[in-house]
């Protein structure tokens, strides 16, 4: 499912660290070498490289990358080099700050990560920001947005496959009733979406479709100007079919007037090691163009090369 | 701070397991031996005894204890023998079931455990009940109770000592304003109580006292018949001074018409390895009677002996 390509024979961490140090040396930076190394190492390997680099040179690899690189390429390399938990914590913190605030990023991370991974992001948030994720999310949101987002980021959903069909029927009816009444911020609706396991929700959404003849998402797409409603619908998409959610973020990020590089970088760096192959399939199916060609057509230079490497282009 | 007394030389787990097996054998059960062993072993040692017992006899020590013992003594021994996380998960599950439901137990566990311990209880809940704690709490509560309890059980508070004094002043004023307006279920008030670190809340409550001349708890004790208000006040007590909260539970459990053995058993088994010495001090201070004498006067037999052993009476 991951698109990341790691060579069959990986150099020792000290060799990678040495090569990276060389890439920074002298006039100019050897971006190709940075991509060749970092974009082809998995999370555990990148962690070892950072540790070895710090031990060998007394410097933080991330700080050196930050100093040597710039613009979208810099952001892609930095995000990618972080561990998944640190990266999520970083993105979440950014999303709660005024100038970079984004309910979308909060929702995306809360609903597409596994329960353990979301919890690890909360631990990394403590370690780095000396406060809790939920206090920042609750502090920076109000009203319906807070009512929806706080339970989503604090959830620790059960991850077993067990499903209670009676409950699924009952809760599908509750969801249908609330949506019919346009009670989108109803606390029962939020309770179901924010606490049930993904397997249980899947059964509930299937029952909703069987019983009421329409996908729950479609029933929510009645008013495309309502930001809260769009978030609620996206939450359901993230929980049900994350690959479709990510395909849409990529599609909207690439299409239209100018590329949204933040969305593009975030999705590629956070999914390359998880489910990027599934997302690429979805992209091809929906757009009749492979994702790599779409990215190549819309980006350039080292940034383009970095993204393409992460989505599995070329050899490791 | 713990009252548990462990002997300086602890027998090997297989010896303890063997002795326990003997205590169950033949006519009658040797309760004194069970107390002598289990009430003087810490969580890691009890875990080893259970594992060794299962390996040696192919039976679950907890099931054998359940079959051999009865009544309050049985409940005390079973709760104590569980690991802290399993025990909290068990108590929380009980508290969400109709016949044994208790918002108080949910609140107590959510607000007096460390962030890591509360999270471990959530993991143990998954493992044992095949669902999440928050889905049961949310499902079994409604209205203001749900609004308060769900964020409390899902919190993963920051535990560092860092305090933001500007924020403390600001939020003390928010709390005072909401309480003055009798807006006890206000979402800002719940946000502050349920997300801030205990150190931060302590600074906030101190500022409240300095600025408004009254402890925040006292300002909440205006209507002693309002169950929600009592819970909110108890949450603040648990977060601020858990030893005082537990002293009160013990005092009310022991005093009055008949003893509330469930409260007594729960507090003793959950605090013996944590802060029972502090609770005993508070008890003596508030009641002018040592806790062990109060318990001895109100309970009897093996149950009494078990509780007294856990609060540090006699030799290990």
UniProtKB/TrEMBL annotation, chains A, B:
InterPro entries: Annexin, Annexin_repeat, Annexin_repeat_CS, Annexin_sf, AnnexinD_plant
Source superkingdom: Eukaryota
One matching Pfam family: Annexin
Molecular function GO terms recorded: calcium ion binding; calcium-dependent phospholipid binding; phosphatidylserine binding
Binding site for Ca(2+) 3: 298
One GO term describing the cellular component: plasma membrane
Binding site for Ca(2+) 1: 24, 26, 28, 68, 254, 258, 296, 299, 304
GO biological process, one term: response to heat
Keywords, ordered alphabetically: Annexin, Calcium, Calcium/phospholipid-binding, Metal-binding, Repeat
Record-linked PANTHER family: ANNEXIN (PTHR10502), ANNEXIN D2 (PTHR10502:SF220)
Membership in a protein family: Belongs to the annexin family.
UniProt remark on domains: A pair of annexin repeats may form one binding site for calcium and phospholipid.
Name of this protein: Annexin
Annotated organism of origin: Nicotiana tabacum
Lineage: Eukaryota, Viridiplantae, Streptophyta, Embryophyta, Tracheophyta
């Amino acid at each position: 499912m991951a698109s990341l390509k790691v060579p069959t024979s990986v150099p020792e961490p000290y060799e990678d660290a040495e090569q990276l140090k060389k890439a920074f040396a002298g006039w100019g930076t050897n971006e190709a070498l940075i991509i060749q190394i970092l974009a082809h190492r998995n999370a555990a390997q990148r962690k070892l490289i950072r540790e070895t680099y710090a031990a060998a040179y007394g410097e933080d690899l991330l700080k050196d990358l930050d100093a040597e690189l710039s613009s979208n390429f810099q952001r892609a390399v930095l995000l990618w080099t972080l561990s998944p938990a640190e990266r999520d914590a970083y993105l979440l913190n950014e999303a709660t700050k005024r100038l970079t605030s984004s309910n979308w990023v909060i929702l995306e991370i809360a609903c597409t990560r596994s329960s353990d991974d979301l919890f690890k992001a909360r631990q990394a948030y403590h370690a780095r920001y000396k406060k809790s994720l939920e206090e920042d999310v609750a502090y920076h949101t109000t009203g319906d947005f807070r009512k929806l987002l706080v339970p989503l980021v604090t959830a620790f959903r059960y991850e077993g496959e067990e499903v209670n069909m009676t409950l699924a029927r009952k809760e599908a009816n509750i969801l249908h009733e609330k949506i019919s009444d346009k009670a989108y911020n109803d606390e029962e609706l939020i309770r179901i979406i924010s606490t049930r396991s993904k397997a249980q929700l899947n059964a509930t959404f299937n029952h909703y479709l069987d019983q009421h003849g329409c996908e729950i998402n479609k029933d929510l797409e009645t008013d495309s100007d309502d930001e809260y409603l769009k978030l609620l619908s996206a939450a359901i998409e993230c929980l049900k079919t994350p690959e479709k959610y990510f395909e849409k973020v990529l599609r909207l990020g690439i299409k239209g007037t100018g590329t949204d590089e933040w969305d593009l970088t975030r999705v590629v760096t956070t999914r390359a090691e998880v489910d990027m192959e599934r997302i690429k399939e979805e992209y091809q199916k929906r757009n009749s163009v492979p994702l790599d060609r779409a990215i190549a057509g819309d980006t350039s230079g080292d940034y383009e090369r970095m993204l393409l490497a992460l989505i599995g282009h070329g050899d490791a």
